[in-house]
Amino acid sequence: MYTYDLLEAGCYYLVKEKEDSMITLIKVAMESDHCLFIMKFEDPTDTEWKLKKDPLFDIIECLSDSAIKEWELYYKSNEDAYTEEDDDD
Known about the structure:
This protein has one helix and seven strands. By secondary structure, it is an alpha+beta fold. The protein has a five-stranded antiparallel sheet, with no helix packed on it. Strands 1-6 form a two-stranded antiparallel ribbon. A hairpin with a 5-residue loop joins β4 and β5.
């Protein structure tokens, strides 16, 4: 069992919050004295504050910059598929 206190601001992580939960990609957007502001890349993207002492079942890995760049290509192209604008002119 881990805590959010082990995560660094600005980094992307693959984590499992509970033993039976799915693997989730998160980014630590910012850090305060006692909390972390977390971005979860699910459908849709979600944000929330977590106490540094809140439990995490597993921190699977901190993704490298090259892995994030590759993931962003897929994520952004997939995002565009759902945000097409209708031209009613």
